[in-house]
Design brief:
- The chain contains 16 helices and no strands.
- With 390 residues, it is mainly α.
- It has two domains: 2-175, MFS general substrate transporter like domains (Growth Hormone, Chain: A), CATH 1.20.1250.20; 202-389, Growth Hormone, Chain: A.
- The radius of gyration is 20 Å and the shape is globular.
- The model is unreliable at 183-188 (pLDDT under 50).
Amino acid sequence: MYTLLLILIYIAFISLGLPDSLLGAGWPVMHTALNVPLSYMGIVSMIISGGTIVSSLMSDRLTRKLGTRVVTVVSVFLTALALLGFSFSDRFWMLILFAIPYGLGAGAIDAALNNYVAMHYTSRHMSWLHCFWGVGTIVSPFVMSYALTHSEWSDGYRIVSFLQLGIGLLLLLTLPVWKTNRNRIDVNLTGKSVGLIGALKIKGVPFLLIGFFSYCAAEATAMYWASSYLVEVRGVSGEFAAAFASLFYIGLTVGRFFGGLIMDRLGDRKMILLGTGILLGGIVCLVLPVEKNFVALAGFIIIGLGCAPIYPCIIHSTPSNFGAENSGAIIGIQMASAYVGTTFIPPLFGVIGRRIGLQILPFYLLIFVVLMIVMTEKTFKQTMRRNRAL
């Protein structure tokens, strides 16, 4: 039953990843069909992000009141219905309307399951959890491509919504399996939530949030701007750049799978340091004065591999650093800080890059990577001193 529950959690996280790359894959056709500018994708994505931030901040209270299993099932159905709404949208305002429940559902799943796995499972399982998110992000562009080839973009959303509904029904029918961990002391679900203000007052939490924000800002910027950098700076063709940029996701997913094999031996802190070292190596590849483009192409794959362990290890270390009774609230705030970083920092690079040039991408990434490792190291050092004192 213990393994079965873990499999169900992994499937639920695939459902989180499925829609994440769907909008980007379909928007070149969607904006024409809806008769809106290409730039309007930013409006939809920001509304989705706004919903995820709100539900992430509310997740601890919801989870304490309803339980992780109920929050997860309801959220999966909410995102499924929102995606189904997308598929029937023939006006832009309809996308805006359905983006709200989509964001709310996605944020709740993310925060609730991250906290549950951090509480009940090992670093290995946390890494594989995010590996399955990557599986979702890899699958959905193929679904959209199939829909565009054989029909229209709305069918891509309809197919993914049916997949989400199937996952939701599976989770609903297997609700009793979640009792597997009931005999474990789940202090996260007892007592009153520490709340946003209370969590921010805990020593080390502000450092953690800055570090997590910085990491997510660097990861998202690399994801969104890899193709443009290769085309504008390295002179690679658009088709070739798009194909190689997708390898960033594959590097991220593969890195999380194989990283899970060694995480329990090295521990969260060492894995974060290892990932940062690989990530810095990838950034160096981008700035090497080499005419051959394969070095820069390899750089983005290496960046993806370096990113792989950082996100899951920062999340997994939260209960041990700050106490299981506080982890729900803190992880919820972490998710909110992550969405802020992924929403605002890549567009900021677009503004800066348009004025200075996209060649500054490696240095832009370097700023956030350095800030991330400094802040996370401060977090670990401060929490270790506090835990020794206790």
